[in-house]
Amino acid sequence: MNIDFVKLFQLIVSSALINNFVFTMFLGLCIFFGVSKKMETAVGMSITFTMVMVVSAALSWVVYQFIMIPLQLTFLKIIIFIGIVAAFVQSADTIMKKVSPTMYYKLGVYLALITTNCIIIAVPLKNAGEHYNFFESMAFALGSGIGFGLALIIMASIREKLEVADVPRPFRGLPISFILAGLIALAFTGFSGLITL
Amino acid sequence: MTTEAKAHELIVSVSPHVRGQETVARIMWTVNLSLLPAFIMSLYYFGPLAAFVTGLCILSAVLAEHIYQTSLKKKSTIGDGSAFLTGFLLGLNLPPSVPFYIPIIGSVIAIVITKLLFGGLGYNVFNPALIGRAFLLISFPKLMTVWSEPTAQFIAMDAKTTATPLGILKEEGLSKLIEIFGDKTDLYMSLLMGNRAGSLGETSVIALLIGAALLLYRGYITWHIPFSFVATVGVMAWAFGGQGGLFTGDPLIHLLSGGLILGAFFMATDYVTCPSIRKGQIIFGIGCGAITMMIRLKGGFPEGVMFAILLMNCFAPLIDRGVKSKKFGAVKEQKK
To answer: What predicted TM-score, i.e. pTM, was given to this entire model?
Structure first.
């Protein structure tokens, strides 16, 4: 398998910034708004999220290429990918609890949330749809994870600042965060067309 | 109380006891004043339309702020000049021949959504005028990119349309640009004076620099953001902007065209939306410059200053966190 490093780099940058899942496709908003209240949780979530994303994309890729395509089961990909992600997250949760309780108390709380995230399922589906090879799907998963982490951290840093702002009462909390996310998305349109794959 | 008793009254108050003359209103009106040369040049090149567009922007911005605040039974803050400034900047950022509803929509978005909903002046995350313009550019891409050709002497009513220098540079290359303007010196001179198509206030570099000099002299802006911004654009244009490989680009064209000077001196330096620590401001400026050149050279838009500043606005709180100075004598907290 030949590795095209330029394309891998482009994939990472494009999925992290230019086609950022949160700001251009509006996926994964539940976690995005739920966890971005404080910087500490945002950082923890970003790390966990990126790790889970890469591993589950790898598992899904293997299953898709070596089981689903030979058996002509590709029409079942949504259900199977959901199963893979859920099984992986649950087993990671259990293993972590046993092996490294400190890490479990730091990152474990986020794992349950991640299971039902839309980006986690969107990445394997996109990998399958675009026929990425293994390294490309890894790059895409890594970039998406970084992009989501970046979005979370930006959002958390701004929302911590907004805590002291005199926001009109009906807009406090979630509503102003939605407006804020819209404005950040407006700024992110500037990246459009930067890399065309 | 008799006057005698009043004279001996002891006034006890908390610090500070010595106050400067600067107020928010004073700074805002000075910034407005410093934009006047650019506005006059836009009148000269684009005629009465410039006054119409800019005036409408200012009027709707001020009215939007007043109506919002009075209807919420708050104190109206239109006197401090910040709404006026937002409208003024938005007006100077619009093309000359936009229909009348564009400035109104832009101003309302800028004032109400970007500024007042976040708690008013001092709490806005983004530069209001730039959000107004970005919103308009995304919503009305056709109307917002009709550039008219400048015709000197205050008369243009119905001008020919043409492309901006950066648009030509992106579509057809440098040689075409030089061909249109005569030779290279003519090109630089027209860019410097503002005799080119573009947004109302961004064209005349020299007028903008006069205004910027006033702000720098009064100490209302510092050199950190504008200079790191402009320098980064220059270096990147020189390094990556040429056709013949690295370090063959022409930095001057990129420095003089587009909204760089207006953006770097008047909009990136907005107190509220940039980092407040000097080291952070330099990072902010470099980031703005790098994103600007990335968009100009590789992106889907010919001009990137607006998006660069908006993107760096998102990162400003993060930068401020990152460059926070250590407390003197503080010991790093032990990990539990």
So the answer is: 0.90
